[in-house]
Amino acid sequence: MSSSHNKTKQYILIWAVLAVLTVLEILVATQLPHTTSRWMCLVLLAVSKAACVALWYMHLKLERGWLKFIAVLPATAAVYALVLMREVVAR
Amino acid sequence: MSQAEAAAPVRHGALHRQSFSIDRYFGTATPGKIGMWIFLVADAMGFGGLLIAYANLRRSTTWPNPAHVLGIQISGVATFILICSSVSMVLAVAAAQAANRKALIRYLALTILGGLVFLSIQATEYTKLVREGMGFAHFSHGTGLFGSTFYSITGFHGCHVFSGVIYLTVILLKSLRGRYDGDASHVELVGLFWHFVDLIWILVFTFVYLL
Q: Where are the beta strands (DSSP E) in B4-130?
C-alpha cells in the first residue's frame, strides 16, 4: 500500500516537472532572441522532458542493460541529423 | 503434462503470467515488452527520418518563423493535455498492477479523453491554418515546404494518437469485463505505446513549433 502510494507520488512529481519544463520552454521560445543559446536551451529542455517520460513513465530506469541499449538506438538518428545539418551549413 | 492439457489453447495473458527466469540480458521483461520496445524503436526511426528531412529543408531555404505562423498557445495547451494523459496512463498501469479494476477503468477513460481532446485541438488548428492559406503544398506567406513538412510530421503523429485511442479503447472494454484482473501485462504494453506518443510530441513541439 505504502509502496503504491510512493509510486503515485513519484508519478505526480514527474508530471509537475514536465509541466514546469513546458512552461519554461514556452518562455524561452517567446522571450529569448533567435540565437544559438536559445536553440541549445530548447533542445536541452526537450531532451530532459523526453528522458523523464522514458525513464519514469516507461520505466526504462528499472530495465536491464540490453533493453536500455535497444531503447537508445534512435539516438543515432539525432547524431546523423547533426552531421547532415553541419554539411548543409558548410555548403 | 496430460494430453488434454497439452491440447488446451493458451491464452495470451496466461503466457505472460508464466514465471520467466530472470534473463541475463533482459531481466524479467516479457517477450511482449521486448517486442513492443523493438517496434517503438523502429517507429522512432521513422519519426527521426521525418525530423531530419525537416531540419535539412529548413536550413536550405528561407523559412517563416513558426511561432508567428502556427501560434504557440494552442499547441502549448495540446502539449499539456498530452502530458496529463501520460500521467493518467502511468496511474492506470499502477492500478492494473495493484489489481484495482475500478481505478484502472477510471484512469484509462481519462487517458482516452486526453487523446480525444488532443485530436480535437489538432483538428481545430488545421482548420484555422487552412483558412489562413496554409495548405499541404501551398503557403501564401512563404515556401510551400513549410506546410508540407508541418502537415506530414504533425499528421503522422496525429495518426499515432488516433491509433493509441483505439488501442486504449480496446483495453478499456476488456478491462470492464475483468480481463486484466491480476494481469497487468497488456496494460503495460499500451502504456508504453502511449508514453512513446507523448515523448515524440515533446520533440515535435520543440522542433516544429518552438525553434
A: none
DSSP secondary structure, B83-96, as one string? HHHHHHHHHHHHHH
Judge if pTM exceeds 0.90.
Answer: no
Distance (Å) of CA B115 to CA A42, A84, B65, B196: 25, 34, 28, 13
Cβ contact B61:B145 at 8 Å: yes
* Contact between B85 and B111 (Cβ < 8 Å): yes
- What is the CB neighbour count within 10 angstroms for residue A64? 15
Say how many CB pairs under 8 Å bridge A and B.
Answer: 126
CA dist B177 and B157 (Å) reads 31
Query: From the CB of residue A1, how many other CB atoms can be counted at a distance below 10 Å?
Result: 6
Rounded-to-integer distance, Cα B164 and Cα B208, Å: 22
- The answer, for A79 touching chain B at a CB cutoff of 8 Å, is no
Question: Are B26 and A19 a contacting pair at CB < 8 A?
Answer: no
CB of B138 closer than 8 Å to CB of B126? no
Q: Report the distance separating Cα A39 and Cα A86, nearest Å.
A: 15
- The predicted-structure confidence for B127-172, as pLDDT tens digits, reads as follows 999 998 888 888 877 788 888 999 999 999 999 999 999 999 999 9
A66 lies within 8 A of chain B by CB: yes
Of the ranges B77-86, B123-132, B141-150, B194-203, which one carries the lowest mean pLDDT score? B141-150
Phi, psi (deg, nearest 5) at residue B21: -70, 155
Per residue in B18-48, pLDDT (tens digit) is 555 677 777 777 888 889 999 999 999 999 8
Q: Which amino acid is at A50?
A: A
CA separation for the pair B208, A15 (Å, rounded):
23
Residue B43 burial (CB count, 10 A): 17
Collapse the DSSP code of B134 into the 3-class scheme (helix H, G, I; strand E, B; otherwise coil) and give the result: strand
